[in-house]
Every structure is written in structure tokens, then in C-alpha cells.
Amino acid sequence: MSTAAVTDKRPSTLRGASLPKWSPWAIAGGSIVLAVAIGLIGGLHSKVEWGLIAAVLFLLGTYGVATMVEGRRQAKDRIATSLVWVAFLLAVIPLVSLIWVTVSRGVKVLNVYFLTHSMGVVADSEPGGGIYHAIIGSLEQVGLATVIGAPIGILTAIYLVEYGRGKLAKAVTFFVDVMTGIPSIVAGLFILSLMLIFQMQPFGFAGSLALAILMMPVVVRSTEEMLKLVPNELREASLALGVPKWRTILKVVLPTSIGGITTGVMLAIARIAGETAPVLLLVFGNPFINNNPFEGAQASLPLFIFQQYQQSAGASAAYDRAWAASLTLIAFVMILNLVARGIARWKAPKTGR
Amino acid sequence: MDISTKTTDAPPPAPQPSLAEQKRNSRGATRPGDRIFLGLSRGSGILLLVIMAAIAVFLTYRASLAISKDHGNFLTTFEWNTNLTPPVFGIAVLAFGTIVSSVIAMVIAVPIAVAIALFLTHYAPRRLSGPIAYVIDLLAAVPSIVYGLWGALILVPHMTGLFGWLNDYLGWTGIFSWDSGAPRSMLTVGILLAIMILPIITNVSREVFRQVPQMHEEAALALGATRWEVVRMAVLPFGRSGVISASMLGLGRALGETMAVATVLSPDYVIHASLLNPGGGTFAQNIASKFGEATEQGRDALIASGLVLFVITLLVNGAARMIIARRKEYSGANA
To answer: Least CA distance to A76: which residue of chain B?
Structure first.
């Protein structure tokens, strides 16, 4: 008789009591209703305040209900879960807003005319004009920076992976790491100090030099990682055939890792393409088309955005142009990123099978 | 090329000299191709070191020119009048603003970034976490000027509600009092910087959390731990140093951020006790906004302030790298 009574009291499984799956939704619904009620009664106007009250009620409610049914530890677990979700949702809001606003405002004036005309004689407060001069400037500056920065970065990585032993390699590794963290404006100031010494006026190539400095450490890092992935057996096989080391590197190591290296270089290009500060100091900006990066001030896309924002005194035409240029820049950077990742996946070193 | 022809041509009967020859050949880069290649790659490594040294040397040189003419105290003067003769300028306000805005950014960004990293590695449904991580990777690539434009035109108008609320309930502290004016203040800058450094902190933390040995987590689960207890007892202790270094990388970004601050902040050269009242300035922002009107003397002064920023970011990044390097050696993942 007594055993029957005991088994009746016990739950049928070994698991503790747990809330049903729908309970978070129920608590959420309840707390929203309660928050709306409090907001209406208390006369709170801001919807944000309603949301905050609802969130606090939800957390308290979850904790209370879970403590009663499941125990304190489970309740803490539920709180942590909801906090993590809240943090995620909180972070999503500005990021989604950023993309949404850029796209929705950018498409207003973005068309072929915008892409193929300069600001030439258009005042910053007037509608019209375009970003052709800025695109030319950006392409030339970033292109020259890549021509300088990428080979030096790749060669340094080759040195670190293939030859690097001893103090020099250690020093290079450390300073590459440190260089990654240099603020872009400091790189700009460095070139500026040289220009002050030699009494030079702003020109596109000066910007390229600063961008190359920013690009090198990124290229070194990614290339290094890629070269390390190349199996040693390949090098040994090549060397065993009597191939000199430099030909081994050029014909075996680099082709094996070329996909990853390309990806790294493209990501670095994407990074420097959006740099404004050094360009502001060294290239200065120019509403006219200047095809020569070695003489005279040039424009660039990020700089164009900044100057449209700053020099227009709130003219909506200028803001529209700034958003459209932002959209162009983001599209350029994102396409570079996506293509780079595509190459990385396509050309990934085939390990094993 | 040389050696291959030589070895095939070399007759087998005389092994001794050929071995000696081989030894000489293998001792170092004696072939011209090898020597040139080694020289090129070592040269570019050395070039990187030279660039770093040159940055330090030239910035110091121009900065010393400026500071020697400075009639204020470079560290404590609350002014930036470089076009006067004699010039009077000091970095006190900039140092204060830079540190305050970065601290605000860190206080907001680090907990949220860690939570997102946990979300991606331990909470999110597996189908979701891959694409979300990908999107966060892409967001790290959004140029800072776009964040700046968004901050100035979208975030600033949306801050008035929060500022009014803070002023109503926390205004008595003095830190959160708000007199009036557009909310182009240090708090807005801090929030924008937090949004900007969120992706990088999240990415690095996620990598660290992913490396937590499966064994640790399974052991905790086997003892009956809830998911939160697994995170607290296995994941966070393992990832602590990784999170610290990720935060310092983010801090380095926040300290040196130029355009986002320059677009959002409405600067003046005063230290405000309140985070809500517009004003103040940061090193990078000051350089960007004062550059246009600066004479050569003024540019040297800006370079001097840039040198201070350079040293600060070097220290922060160096510390972060050292923490990462130490962690690699004692990493439990290898055990």
C-alpha cells in the first residue's frame, strides 16, 4: 500500500519538473500586455520605455516562474539565455539600421549619371553632380597602394615562413602585429611629416603610400597563415628533386597557396578602400577630375562622403550624394569581400583526400 | 637548376668530391637565384621594421619642432591655438576625451560582444549561427566613414529620447545632466564607437570560445550543469584571456577612430563633467577637424598630438599581443 502511494507522488521520469516549451512565449506575451497597461495608466509616451518595462517584466517573470517550478539554478540558466538573446537582438538593431538606411537613401540619386560625372561646377548645396572624380581617385590611390603594399607584404610573409629564424624574424613578427593596430591617421601623419620636410603639396600618391603602410601588415598576416598551411611534404619533395629553394617557393609553395593569398590581399584592399583619415591629410580632396595621382589634389570615395557631409551645411542634396557614395563604397567593399571569400573556398588547399 | 644538371652529369665513381661539393652548395644560398630571392624577402621584412622606426623618428622630429615653440604646457594646457605667435596648445582635453569615449565604448561593447559570441557558439540554433557569423564578418568591413555618416544623421536624432530620460532620472549625478543642444556629445560618440568595435570583439571572442575543449564542456554537462553553468565554469574561464585581448584590440580601434568621431562630435576645447553636453574632443578627431585651417606650425602641433596617440595605441596593442602570445603557450586546446 505504502509503495503505491510513493510511486504516485514521484514523477514518472528521473527528470526534474520543467516548464512547458510554450512558457517563454506566454511570459513574454503577459509581460508585454502588462507593460502596455502600465504605460497607458502611467502616461508614459515613449514606446521605448514600454519596451524596456516589458523586457524587465519578462526577466522578472521568467525568474519567478522558473524558480517556483524548476528551482533556482534552472531559473538562472533561463535568465542567462534570455540575456544572451537580448544582447544579440540589441546589437542587430543598429547594424540592420545602418544597412537599411544606406541602401534606401543611397538609391535615391544613384544612377549612371551620378557614377559618370564629377562635382566640377556643382556647388555642394545644389543637387546634381556625381562621384566619377572620387571613383577615379579611389581606384588610383588604392591601386598604387596595392602595387606597393601587396608585394612587400607577401615577400615579408615568405621570409617569415620559409627563411625566418632568429632575432630578425621575431622582431618582424612582433612589429607586424603592432603595425596592424596603427591608427590610420597616424600613418597619414607620418607621410605628412615627410611632405612637410620636402615642402610638397597634397597629391594622390602620398595617400597611396599611407594606405600601403596600412595594408602591409594585413597582407603579411593572412599570407603567413596561408603559407603555413602548405604541407611540408610538398617542399621536401621539390627540394629532394634538386630544385633550388627559390624555385620551390615560386613554383610549388606559392601556386598551392595562391587562393588564400589572393583572398588576403583582397580583404586588405577592402580595408584600405574605406580609409578616410590619411586621404584627408594627404590628398586633400578636389571637386574636379584629376587623372594624375602624382600631381595635384585628388578626390576619393570616403573623402567625398566626409566632405559632402561636412561642407554642405545640411543641404539635403549633399546628404543624398553622401548616402549614394556610401552605398557605392559599401557595395565595392562587400563585393571584394564576397569574391575574396569565394576564391578562398574555391581554391582552398586540398588537404587529405 | 644548376644542381640538377650537375648531379645527373656527375659520374658515380668519385663520391667524395661530389659530396663535399654538395655540402658547400647546401650550406647556404650560394646560387644567385636563391641569394636574390632571400635578399628580396629579407629586405622587405627589414623594410617593415624601417617603416616602423621611420614613423617613430619622423613624428618625434616634427613633434619636437612644435613642442619647442609651444608657449603652453603640452600636457596640461586647455587650449589649441596653434596659429597664434607664439602658439599655445596642450593635449589635456584630447587625452581626456579620447579615454572617456573609448571607456564608454568598451563598457557597452565588451559585455554585448561576449554575449553575442556566446550566442553564436552556444545558444543560437546551428542553422542560424553560420550565416550570422558571416554577416558580422562583413560588418567588420563597413568603412568607418559610413558609420560616421550614419551616426551623425541617424543615431544623433534618435539619442534625444535617451538623453532626456537620463537627464530626468540621473541628472543629479552631474555626469548625466543635459542642458540642451544636439546630442553630439561624448556619450553618443561612445555608443557609436561601441557599435563599430562590436564586430571585431565578437569575432575574436567567438574564435576563442570555439576552441574550448569539448571535454571540459561535456564533463560539466555530465555533472548535471545547466547551460549557463557550463558557460560560467568551462567556457568563460578558458576564454578569459582571449576576451581580454579581443577587448584590447577593440580598444585600439576605438582610440584611433577618426572619421566617426569627427562627424558625430561637435567639438570645443573644454573638459565637460557631463557626458551628455556636447563638447570635448579626441586626438584623431582634433587632427581631422583642425587640419584644414592649420598652418605648417599647426600641422606640426597636430603631428605632436598624433605622436601621443601613436604611443598609446602601441602600448595597448602590444599588451594585447602579449596576452595572446602567452595564451598560445599555455593553451589548454593543445593538451
So the answer is: B228
CATH code of the domain in which B209 resides: 1.10.3720.10
Whose cell is 525568474? That residue is A63
CA–CA distances in Å: residue A6 to residues A18, A296, A350: 20, 92, 62
In a domain, B204, yes or no: yes
Residue B282, pLDDT score: 93
Instruction: Flag whether the pTM goes above 0.80.
Output: yes
**Are the beta carbons of A179 and B52 separated by less than 8 Å?**
yes
Mutation target vs A (from B38, B258, B297; most A CBs, 10 A cutoff):
B258
Closest alpha carbon within chain B to A105: B150
* Judgement on whether residues B37 and B185 belong to the same structural domain of the protein: no
- Higher pLDDT residue, B29 or A202? A202
Residues of chain A with pLDDT > 90: what percent? 46
User: Does some domain include residue B276?
Assistant: yes
Residues 6+ apart with CB under 8 A from B115: A83, A84, A87, A88
Look at residue B76 and tell me if it is in a domain: no
Cα dist. A287→A134, A313, B3 in Å? 8, 17, 60
- Residues of chain B contacting A177 with CB distance shorter than 8 Å: 317, 321
The distance from CA B44 to its chain's CA centroid, rounded to whole angstroms, is 24
Q: Which domains does chain A have, with CATH numbers?
A: 18-106 (no CATH), 115-346 (1.10.3720.10)
The answer to whether A225 faces chain B, any CB pair under 8 Å, is no
How many contacts (CB atoms, under 8 Å) link A and B? Answer: 267
First to last CA, chain A: 66
Task: Based on the fold, state whether residues B89 and B230 are members of the same structural domain.
Answer: yes
pLDDT value at residue A4: 47
B119/A178 Cβ within 8 A: no
Q: Which of A246, A335, A341 to mutate to test the interface with B (most CBs of B within 10 A)?
A: A246
Q: Across the interface, do A246 and B34 touch by the CB < 8 Å criterion?
A: yes
The answer to whether residues B58 and B94 belong to one domain is: no
pLDDT digits (tens, 9 = 90+) for A106-161: 998 899 999 998 888 888 888 888 899 999 999 999 999 999 999 999 999 999 99
Average pLDDT over residues A179-188: 91
Question: Which ranges of chain B does DSSP label H, i.e. alpha helix?
Answer: 2-9, 15-27, 32-69, 92-118, 126-139, 144-150, 156-170, 186-210, 214-222, 227-230, 236-256, 259-264, 283-290, 296-329
Its domain, for residue B101, covers: 81-334
Whole-number Å distance between alpha carbons of B284 and B254 = 10
Of B71, B103, B118, the last residue of a domain is B71
CA distance B284 to chain A (A): 7
- Closest CA of chain A from B62, distance in Å: 7
Query: B256 to chain A, minimum CA–CA distance in Å?
Result: 5
Count up the domains in chain B and report the number. Answer: 2
- Residues of chain B with pLDDT > 90, as a percent, come to 41
Q: CA of A187 to nearest chain B CA: how many angstroms apart?
A: 8
* In a domain? residue B154: yes
Interface of B with A in 116-175 (CB under 8 A): 116, 118-119, 123-124, 135, 137-139, 141-150, 152-155, 161-162, 165
Same domain for B38 and B175?
Answer: no
B33–A244 CB contact, under 8 Å: yes
B89 and B53 part of one domain:
no
pLDDT of B239 higher than 60: yes
DSSP state string for A33-47:
HHHHHHHHHHT---H
- Residues B229 and B285 both lie in one domain: yes
ipTM surpasses 0.85: yes
CA distance A229 to A242: 23
pLDDT top residue among A223 and B130: A223
